[in-house]
Amino acid sequence: MARVTSADVAREAGVSRTTVSYVLNDTPGASVSRVTRERIRETATRLGYAPSAAARTLRRGRSDLVVAVLPDWPTGSVVDTLLDHLTDVLATRGLFVLVHHHRDSRSLADLWRAVTPHTVVGLAPFAPDDLRTMQRAGIRVVGTAQNADETSFDVAQRGIGALQAEHLVAAGHTRIAYARPDDPRLGRFADGRLAGVRAACAAAALEVPAAVPVPAGEPAAAAVAAWRDAGVTAVAAYNDDVALAVLAGAAAHGLRVPDELAVIGVDDAPAGRVAAPPLTTVAQPVAQQSEHLAASVLAAIDGADAPPWPDDPALVVARGSA
């Protein structure tokens, strides 16, 4: 079926294409009567007319599209919250958010050829070539400066792991294990958090815990059995999904949580709040990070300086599992 054009709308409404353009683009100062405006809009709706994004970009000199580039990570509640808030804030400025899950098998340059975004938000550092290509194309780039700070990223992950271990140590546990995800894409996050757990255990003169891969989504029965036999009484899990798998493994072996095995996760996911028992976790400052991300995009749009990164720390949310 042929695409409906502004010429089709003009012909059906009995007006010129220029008049259609004035009305559908809300051109300031255009002298078009209310009756004619209503007829054009009704005709466009009836015919199913959708304006060309590329043509609109040429007319305005900018796009209405903000592309959020996600690395090749499994997404969870934290990323979902960030994107939801960003979408809501940018909608008030007439901007749309397109989420792109990047894969190394294809260059980001292909994406820029397909769409011309107003701004690109990166949740991880861009390759230097991709960054230069966007800058040459006049595309604003937000988010890479903070995420490119390798030291800040690693310190944050170690801090999360340290909070987990310190909470368990304060509860009297002396044999702690670490449940890491089995997805290699999460390796850098898991390594940082494990380093924090190990450092906190070493500071308390405890045995350095080994990391055991635990698939999310199925009971970690084998891992729990091995920990039980080794005298482990507490598990720091990479995130809440992994922690829920550990809880299911404990239930499979009839272990009482937290009396026989304490479990702590990360992310404060909704599912953890209704687990049996409710999951103790480390909550990241997602609301503050969401506000910062949205404010940074708006600052880039307005040509202003980006706001400082929020210094709100992660914190332990103590519930029944630990």
UniProtKB/TrEMBL annotation:
<protein>
    <submittedName>
        <fullName>LacI family transcriptional regulator</fullName>
    </submittedName>
</protein>
<dbReference type="InterPro" id="IPR000843">
    <property type="entry name" value="HTH_LacI"/>
</dbReference>
<dbReference type="InterPro" id="IPR046335">
    <property type="entry name" value="LacI/GalR-like_sensor"/>
</dbReference>
<keyword id="KW-0805">Transcription regulation</keyword>
<feature type="domain" description="HTH lacI-type">
    <location>
        <begin position="4"/>
        <end position="60"/>
    </location>
</feature>
<dbReference type="Pfam" id="PF00356">
    <property type="entry name" value="LacI"/>
</dbReference>
<dbReference type="InterPro" id="IPR028082">
    <property type="entry name" value="Peripla_BP_I"/>
</dbReference>
<dbReference type="Pfam" id="PF13377">
    <property type="entry name" value="Peripla_BP_3"/>
</dbReference>
<keyword id="KW-0238">DNA-binding</keyword>
<keyword id="KW-0804">Transcription</keyword>
<dbReference type="InterPro" id="IPR010982">
    <property type="entry name" value="Lambda_DNA-bd_dom_sf"/>
</dbReference>
